[in-house]
Amino acid sequence: MSDFDFSVITQNWAFLAEGLRYTLQVTVTAMLGGILIGTLLALMRLSSIVPLQWFAAGYVNIFRSVPLVQVILAFYLIIPLVLQMITGKQIPIGAANSAYFTFTIFEAAYYSEIMRSGIQSIPKGQIAAGYALGFTYGQTMRFVVLPQAFRNMLPVLLTQTIILFQDVSLVYAIGATDFFGAADKITQRDLRPVEMYTTVAVVYFIICFTLSRLVKRLQSRIAIIR
Amino acid sequence: MIEIKNVSKWYGSFQVLTDCTTQVSKSEVVVVCGPSGSGKSTLIKCVNALEPFQQGSIVVDGIAVENPKTDLPKLRARVGMVFQNFELFPHMTITDNLAIAQIKVLGRGREEAVDKGLKLLDRVGLKNQAAKFPGQLSGGQQQRVAIARALAMDPICMLFDEPTSALDPEMINEVLDVMVQLAHEGMTMMCVTHEMGFARKVANRVIFMDRGAIVEDAAKEDFFGQPRSERAQTFLAKILNH
Fold it and tell me: Considering only Cβ atoms within 10 Å of each terminal Cβ, which end of chain B, N or C, has fewer?
């Protein structure tokens, strides 16, 4: 091990790229789905209908209290059972597919707390102005409150998404192969941990850094001028 | 046009409005004044149901506001409202602020809505600000846009909730000028304001409120001539003497 040998990367590039593609797909799916469900949960939590408040609060509290890796495992085991109960057939969905669902559901809890504080940051007068113009509740949220909440919360939403991107590596628990998992598997076989993990770290860094730069530019473009 | 009958409202056990009764007829301009905390803003917000009330009734153009079957968005779309803090939507251009409710609530086409909005923007003297965002305008300019936004909905009446209270003194007149012009055009207006100059110029009636109750409801000449209640006299003496 006296010399570094980065050929381990080039030789296994296709396998690594496949893992990276999976990681990015899970991230994007869970981000979009999580923000959508999270926003609905936030609206429930802030609604005046008590059962909806309870449901949203329960949802958030449960998922925030359980380690992600355990949720990944639990959903992997439970989803097939539930599907079997509903359809009566055995539907093998596989580890890779179950993660899309798990991350979306899990991240929704965190995104919902972000959106909740975003919604609460909008002055009450804005809501009154929406109503006064004849908007319904839904229109007031869609055109007045949520666009502003989203802009205000963009940096925090990004932070959560970067955490999500890195957390996808936890799918090792159910044997799915993400970017980190792919690197790990090659390392077990070829015994070149330094080259491999350094490369993986650099790739993670480049992606996260680029993402935060992109969001910064997006933010300055859509920022609310005050 | 607006009939307020025996309206009472409580926050918990605290009564904010006590048996308020008054009306605003078509093309009438009614100014509501009174010390802060007297319930004037609350009362005007009851008119378009932004604030609920527990007792009494408010009828706007034949429609009972407190009736649970009333289509409130539809009613509110016909009642223009201008707020103390302007409440333009900061994430939209002035043009979009003027057009969005016309498009989404009245179902007008975008072109028609923008056209109408820009005409009104011209009327309040801000034609060249159409592409800007609210944050780039002064308070007085924002409030004039807010008036144009409300007018774009072709309201049957306008409610003003302390429209000049958040403005620097030199900007108050530009807003009042627009309001005076509106009054002269025959708009039905209910204005919560301390601008007694405005009241003298255009009001038909002045309502004086204190501790949630309407203490005085009189024609302008009577109110400024000889207010019957002592409370109104001291209030007037305080705000007119300097």
Answer: C
Contact B135 A225 (CB under 8 A): yes
Distance (Å, whole) CA A133 – CA B195:
25
Query: Is residue A217 a part of any domain in this protein?
Result: yes
The model scores a pTM over 0.80: yes
Mean pLDDT of B5-26: 93
Where on the phi/psi map is residue A134: left (φ > 0), alpha (ψ -120 to 50), or beta?
A: left
Compute how many other C-beta atoms are within 10 angstroms of the C-beta atom of residue B239.
Answer: 13
CATH of the domain at A174: 1.10.3720.10
Instruction: Tell whether B71 is within 8 A of chain A (Cβ).
Output: no
Mean pLDDT of chain A, nearest integer? 92
- Is residue A1 assigned to a domain? no
For chain B, percent of residues with pLDDT exceeding 70: 99
Instruction: Give the integer Cα–Cα distance in Å for B28 and B58.
Output: 17
Among residues 130-149 of chain B, which lie with CB inside 8 Å of chain A? 133-136, 149
Number of domains composing chain A: 1
Averaged pLDDT, A8-20: 90
pLDDT tens per residue, range B127-145? 999 999 999 999 999 999 9
Tell me if chain B has a CB within 8 Å of the CB of A199.
no
Could you report the predicted ipTM of this complex, rounded to two decimals? 0.93
Whether residue B209 contacts residue B7, with contact meaning beta carbons closer than 8 Å, is answered with: no
